[in-house]
Amino acid sequence: MTRYVVNRLAGMVLVLFLVCLFTYMVFFLLSPDPAVQICGKNCTPERIDQIRANLGLDEPFVTQFLNFLRGLFIGREYEGGINCPAPCLGYSFQTSQVVTDMIVQRLPVTAVVAVGAAVLWLLMGVVGGLISAVQEGKFADRFIAGLTLGGMSVPNYVLALALQYVFVVWLQWLPFPQAVPFADDPVQWFLNFILPWSVLAIGYASSYTRLTRANVIDTLDENFVRTARAKGLRPDLVWRRHALRPALTPIVTIAGMDFAGLLGGALITETVFGINGVGKLAADSITKNDQPVIMAVTLLAAFFVVVGNMVVDLLYSAIDPRVRVGVSA
Amino acid sequence: MTLLQAKGLTVTFGATNVVDGIDFEVRPGGTLGIVGESGSGKSMTSLAIMGLLPSSATRAGSIDFAGTELTKVTERQMRAIRGDRIAMVFQDPLSSLNPYYTVGTQIAEAYRSHRSGVSRKAARAAAIEAMDRVHIKDAGKRVDDYPHQFSGGMRQRVMIAMALSTEPELIIADEPTTALDVTVQAQILDLLAEVRRDTGAALILITHDLAVVSEVADDLIVMRHGRVVETGTAEQIFSDPQAPYTQALLDAVPRIDDSIGDLRPVPGGPA
């Protein structure tokens, strides 16, 4: 087990390094010169050279990349006395802020969005899927199938605007969204998040419903469920132990992956609802072409996905005894 | 004196009788072989006894088990009989065991659900004892292994241990050797015979394989298209088959002392 974990960790570090390298390369090679942008309209070539030197942009690619890596692990200092402690993800000249601080500020709200949405979609998906499976072919099953089809086909931004119109403007059941710290007014805070959670959850819940339904129906057909019945086991035990556990295990692991993806920021939802999270930061930085921030957000998303992947794999080997540790590494 | 007696047992899917009014009986401690091709209705017969038919099937006729009419009991009463007084061994032991639980847990589960107030520890001990009785070596250790850690033959031993752990009066084995390779088949048949001798449980052995029943069964019924075409003692049927179908079935088995000729398939197909 230890060897397996060590192997996986090594693999993870390698993947993250490659992601770093690739992202850095993309921004180094494809982006317009940040120095020109920072300098603005009335700019002399000397001024551009000076900015380049300040940012370290006059160095060759390898040196720049190594500087970036060094910044990640031991921090770095930009000319002009700007200190960027580890993990330094760069410095945004457009906002005059250290990128790491910008992200750390916004991560909690993104985490709140992701956690709430995940709870909601797991609840809706699993319950909906179970109802569909039990009522297979009957009205409830078809009704839920219709809902999931809708949930999967309506794009996030349409759903977000539609729900906002219906619940905030028309019915006025929910307050107009405004940033309220949890400590000031927990109720208002909670009400603010209901729509973003729902918008994110509906898409995921739809596919989880289908997955749960299919898995449960398949599992009920398994020979070992017949064995459990032949033992004279109570129906609730047959369900709980022999049908649900095998049917839901894959769902839990997929949920881990999806959740990790969301931690990287829900770009559309955060933007539509004006939530100042990592997703909105990414959207804003893209419109402003603030490269260090775009790159940092990309890396962060990759980091969560890679870590999430590993956690899910470790979890899987704990839940499913057939996944022999060491073999799949 | 009979332990189980079926009269006019019929299983219907839609308009088709897959089991069509069959009669048979099992004596206490005796072995009844039910032989037939696939599609002859033998497995449906066993599921009909257990009350485990698919919901799309209907059951008619009578099944008397030690004075209890199984077609009349409630699901709750049937559950008390299932796994306790009538246990079942299925064809494919890998898919019939739940991959998520240790074999010990699965054996103990059968035991505990029929013995109220039994502690986990006692159930585990019973599981180990049952595994011992089916000759699984190191039962005390292997009780914590998962099904995938066993070979095919060992898995079937686990299934048999599960069946006998509650000391049933009747064990129904539905093609218990079909998924196993030939050398292991004989061991499992020996084991079933041994279990029957030791526990006094009666056995219904369902198979398409005549060699299997010839070794173990006392009585035999031969089924085709949901009907019984011949009934008798195993000896009688093997030495002097009456029905043309039984004759054809016996002729279809290649014999080692036979001159080499064409194999003789049974004419006709499943209905």
From TrEMBL, chain A:
<comment type="similarity">
    <text>Belongs to the binding-protein-dependent transport system permease family.</text>
</comment>
<feature type="domain" description="ABC transmembrane type-1">
    <location>
        <begin position="107"/>
        <end position="316"/>
    </location>
</feature>
<keyword id="KW-1133">Transmembrane helix</keyword>
<feature type="transmembrane region" description="Helical">
    <location>
        <begin position="143"/>
        <end position="167"/>
    </location>
</feature>
<protein>
    <submittedName>
        <fullName>ABC transporter permease subunit</fullName>
    </submittedName>
</protein>
<feature type="transmembrane region" description="Helical">
    <location>
        <begin position="247"/>
        <end position="273"/>
    </location>
</feature>
<keyword id="KW-0472">Membrane</keyword>
<feature type="transmembrane region" description="Helical">
    <location>
        <begin position="187"/>
        <end position="205"/>
    </location>
</feature>
<dbReference type="InterPro" id="IPR045621">
    <property type="entry name" value="BPD_transp_1_N"/>
</dbReference>
<feature type="transmembrane region" description="Helical">
    <location>
        <begin position="293"/>
        <end position="316"/>
    </location>
</feature>
<keyword id="KW-0812">Transmembrane</keyword>
<keyword id="KW-1003">Cell membrane</keyword>
<dbReference type="InterPro" id="IPR000515">
    <property type="entry name" value="MetI-like"/>
</dbReference>
<keyword id="KW-0813">Transport</keyword>
<feature type="transmembrane region" description="Helical">
    <location>
        <begin position="12"/>
        <end position="30"/>
    </location>
</feature>
<dbReference type="Pfam" id="PF19300">
    <property type="entry name" value="BPD_transp_1_N"/>
</dbReference>
<dbReference type="InterPro" id="IPR035906">
    <property type="entry name" value="MetI-like_sf"/>
</dbReference>
<dbReference type="Pfam" id="PF00528">
    <property type="entry name" value="BPD_transp_1"/>
</dbReference>
<feature type="transmembrane region" description="Helical">
    <location>
        <begin position="109"/>
        <end position="131"/>
    </location>
</feature>
Automatic annotation (TrEMBL), chain B:
<dbReference type="InterPro" id="IPR012700">
    <property type="entry name" value="PhnK"/>
</dbReference>
<comment type="similarity">
    <text>Belongs to the ABC transporter superfamily.</text>
</comment>
<keyword id="KW-0813">Transport</keyword>
<feature type="domain" description="ABC transporter">
    <location>
        <begin position="4"/>
        <end position="250"/>
    </location>
</feature>
<keyword id="KW-0472">Membrane</keyword>
<keyword id="KW-1003">Cell membrane</keyword>
<dbReference type="InterPro" id="IPR003439">
    <property type="entry name" value="ABC_transporter-like_ATP-bd"/>
</dbReference>
<keyword id="KW-0547">Nucleotide-binding</keyword>
<dbReference type="InterPro" id="IPR003593">
    <property type="entry name" value="AAA+_ATPase"/>
</dbReference>
<protein>
    <recommendedName>
        <fullName>ABC transporter domain-containing protein</fullName>
    </recommendedName>
</protein>
<dbReference type="InterPro" id="IPR027417">
    <property type="entry name" value="P-loop_NTPase"/>
</dbReference>
<dbReference type="InterPro" id="IPR013563">
    <property type="entry name" value="Oligopep_ABC_C"/>
</dbReference>
<keyword id="KW-0067">ATP-binding</keyword>
<dbReference type="Pfam" id="PF00005">
    <property type="entry name" value="ABC_tran"/>
</dbReference>
<dbReference type="InterPro" id="IPR017871">
    <property type="entry name" value="ABC_transporter-like_CS"/>
</dbReference>
<dbReference type="InterPro" id="IPR050388">
    <property type="entry name" value="ABC_Ni/Peptide_Import"/>
</dbReference>
<dbReference type="Pfam" id="PF08352">
    <property type="entry name" value="oligo_HPY"/>
</dbReference>
